[in-house]
Amino acid sequence: MMQKGLLNVKKIRKDFPILKRQLDSGKPLIYLDNAATTQKPLAVINAIHDYYMNYNSNIHRAVHQLAEEATAAYESTRQKVAKFINARSTDEIVFTRNTTEAINLVAYAWGRANIGKGDKIVITEIEHHSNIVPWQILTQEKGAKLEYIGVDDSGYLKMDQYQKHLDSKKVKLVSVSQMSNVLGTITPVNDIIKMSHERGIPVLIDGAQSVPHMPVDVQKMDCDFLAFSAHKMLGPTGVGILYVKREILENMPPFIGGGDMIKEVHKYETRYNDLPYKFEGGTPNIADVIGFAAAIDYLNNIGMDRVRDHEIDITRYALDRIGGVKGVTIYGPPNPMDRGGVVSFNIGDIHPHDLATIMNDHGIAIRSGHHCAQVLMERLDVAATSRASFYIYNTKEEVDALIGALDEARRLFKI
Ligand code: 7TS
Asked: Which domains does the chain show, CATH number per domain?
């Protein structure tokens, strides 16, 4: 049953064994690097353990009992994923290794068949490298062009630039992150998709940061492709999801050739398997796909609306508290309603790696660096930022501990 009201964070924390960990500094762990990967509840760890202990087998191939059990569990995750994002059917859900591979799948399979000389692909300045490099490779190979929607000083996309790109009439694909992993910006994907569909242009949504943190409905949004990673939403590493609208997937050539993606192979030709198996060549990451189901169950039990509400609450508090630190610059939208639970900042001229090292001495795990978003770093005119990112088990007390440690760093560096 879905719960109501504020999250019972105290209870949630008990489900995550790692949160009890004492670090080498002697301090308890304060984990604020959730945009990189989240921690895993016991239910996920147990599901993986149970698979290897009791029904380890390859899937889709044999008729013996273990194979049937493993196949059923693997396919049950696909059903849960389809329901979680409200896909029309499980045919539209392809398992990959991560968001990066999901986007590359689209670039290779769809892109090679649909992008030609002089065509344009539109992305934005806030993208993660995973949503930049595949398009650079494709456009360079095809003699096509990569165009950017800029970001303003408050972290919002410059929609007038988007309009101009669309008006230029050569755009064949738009690929945009729904939530920035640096600024936290939640982008206006509904408008972006509507504007591009009016011109018959498909849209890929990078949901690596959005799907774990807010309700995402592919039918409502009407995106053509959606990519995200299990490991950023309580699930194991090594599992990514690519949603593709059925009518597009049906016409896509395959990505990786080999076992499992075929129906019949002859000396010089192959009949490919049904959707979505045509896009899942080779033995997949069975154990972790099975583990991912437990993560989806866990999130469903809380309810994604409540996950989002918790993060708005803690982000509002963090923006306020971090904003009060002397010498601080916070990047991204000032309004917590317009962003996810990610706060990037710099303090004076303290290098983010130095800051992260001092935080580590306090048991606080934050991220420092370019966050795989160097195009955005150039736009912000910084080499790096520090970043605190939150999830369902984080508390305001942990934000307070961060502030205490930041103040100490500031004193150390005489800012
Ligand atoms: N897209 C976005 C918006 C991301 O934030 C990330 C990972 C990816 C794509 C790639 O996901 P992967 O699972 O394929 O690696 N972001 C981060 C981060 O912010 N820190 O570490 C990874």
From this structure: 9-40+303-412 (3.90.1150.10), 46-300 (3.40.640.10)
